[in-house]
Write a structure and sequence with these properties.
Layout lengths: L20 H11 L14 E5 L2 E4 L4 E4 L2 H4 L8 H13 L11 H13 L6 E6 L2 H16 L3 E5 L8 H6 L17 E4 L11 H15 L5 E6 L15 H12 L2 E5 L23 E4 L10 E6 H4 L15 H16 L2 H21 L4 E7 L2 E6 L9 H13 L2 E2 L1 E3 L5 E4 L7 H19 L1
Helix pairs in contact: 3-10, 4-10, 7-8, 11-13, 12-13
The structure holds ligand PLZ.
Ligand PLZ binds next to helix 5.
Length: about 450
């Protein structure tokens, strides 16, 4: 008989400094072999992970408030994901859907049709990464409309490939030196309530006026938007902004593409963030949370648009890989059966009041915002609206040293973002939040 493996801890455990000696040793090896352009927020090397905890190679257990950037919504190594993936990987690993297809690709597309907003007939195409999904949504929009211009927003993030770099707003680190960029991309203002008191309708009017004056509606294939911006700073537009933009699109034969790669799959307390304002996109891009950590992405859209693409005009060797599809079906099952949209709302209900109470007593916090389990804290020089990326990274550094993985974001690098797995134990979340609150107090008073 083999001894059963020791149970991993179910709470934060710090046995060494963070990163510990084994992580530091691996990190030295890394420098000689991994390209330096690929960076890591916290060079703690992970041996195992479950739920909301990351167990490292030094025997430390860290609290995960990042979910690998909004991916492990169902928790790490969720049983609902692991079992079907194990089965699938033993049955067959790949045939290429474009050569000889298989059923679980269809099942993922059926789930996407049922879960994404809108009652219309839908079709999906599967890809490997978020950027690839966005690229394909743009291809589809251009071909289906016969138009070329794509409108994007200030602070937007859509990926790191050539086309998606052009769609992304921030230069350093994503774009600087990597041009030339793809043409026919136009940027308009985003509603950013913490920094702009105008209503959603007012900012939408300005954006629309720019499009109409500078491009003309009939040149525009699509407006592409994250319903709540992710990398750009967890910016939730003022109420009315998204519906006004979506309505203008409908009125002008322009496609409304929602990039729900970060906001999707229960993260914001609904299956998709567009639902908060009943916006129904023509095309929607998904990835990240869709498959519990396996690489999968999708474009889902109106059947008549998607089916306007000629045979073999879309695809890729690995798109909709059967193992990733098995993971997606398991993750979706977990989200549905465990009602993780509700879990996300409960996480928000726990975190927001505590963070808002802290903000009320600190003039270094401009704003605490978010929906469900997608929450941002924006830091400024005390009493001003000047972004303070230094204090933001000091707070993050203190959390990291204490075994709490948090991420930052924002055009100005001054937002701490919280993206816990939706299955995180309340005691673990509480402890992570307490560490964060103490770090904020330490660095802002
Ligand atoms: N669209 C809205 O959030 C990925 C990127 C991290 P990929 N965000 C995390 C980094 O620094 O590279 C993202 C997103 C939105 C598209 C993408 C791109 O998804 O799967 O990273 O290609």
């Amino acid at each position: 008989m083999t001894a059963s493996p020791p149970q991993a801890p179910t709470a934060r455990v710090l046995r060494t400094e963070i990163p510990g000696p084994h992580s530091r040793e691996l990190h030295r090896r890394r420098a000689a072999t991994v390209a330096s352009g690929v960076a890591s927020v916290l060079p703690v090397y992970i041996a195992e992970a479950a739920g909301g905890l990351l167990h490292d190679v030094d025997g430390n257990s860290l609290i995960d408030l990042g979910s690998g950037i909004a991916v492990t919504n169902v928790g790490n190594a969720a049983p609902e994901v692991v079992e079907p993936v194990r089965r699938q990987v033993a049955e067959f690993t790949h045939t290429c859907f474009m050569v000889t297809p298989y059923e679980n690709y269809l099942q993922v597309c059926e789930e996407l049709a049922a879960l994404t907003p809108g009652e219309h007939e839908k079709r999906s195409a599967l890809f490997n990464s978020g950027a690839e999904a966005v690229e394909n949504a743009v291809k589809i929009a251009r071909r289906a409309t016969g138009r070329q211009a794509i409108v994007v927003f200030d602070h937007a993030y859509h990926g790191r490939t050539n086309l998606t770099m052009a769609l992304t707003a921030k230069s350093v680190p994503y774009k600087h030196g990597f041009g030339p960029f793809a043409p026919e991309i136009y940027r308009v203002p985003m509603s950013y309530p913490a920094r702009d008191a105008r209503t959603g309708a007012q900012v939408a009017r300005e954006a629309i006026e720019r499009i109409e004056k500078q491009l003309g509606a009939d040149s525009v294939a699509a407006v592409l938007i994250e319903p709540i911006q992710g990398e750009g700073g967890f910016i939730e537009p003022a109420t009315g902004f998204l519906p006004a933009i979506a309505q203008w699109c409908t009125d002008n034969g322009v496609l409304f593409i929602a990039d729900e790669i970060q906001t999707g799959f229960c993260r914001t307390g609904e299956w998709f963030a567009c639902e908060h304002e009943d916006v129904v996109p023509d095309l929607i891009t998904t990835a990240k949370g869709i498959a519990g950590g396996l690489p999968l992405a999708a474009v889902t859209g109106r059947a008549e648009l998607m089916d306007a693409m000629p045979p073999s005009s879309l695809g890729g060797t690995y798109g909709g890989n059967p193992v990733a599809c098995a993971g997606a079906l398991g993750a979706i099952r977990a989200m549905r059966e465990r009602d993780l949209a509700r879990a996300a709302r409960a996480i928000g209900d726990l975190m927001l009041p505590r963070l808002r109470a802290l903000a009320a007593s600190s003039d270094a916090i401009l704003d605490v915002r978010g929906r469900g389990a997608m929450i941002g804290i924006e830091f400024v020089k005390p009493g001003t609206s000047e972004p303070d990326p230094e204090v933001t990274s000091r707070i993050a550094g203190t959390c990291h040293a204490q075994g709490v993985v948090i991420l930052t974001c924002g055009t100005y690098g001054n937002v701490i973002r919280l993206l816990p797995p939706l299955v995180i134990e309340q005691s673990v979340l509480d402890e992570g939040l307490a560490v964060l609150e103490a770090a904020i107090r330490e660095h802002t008073s």
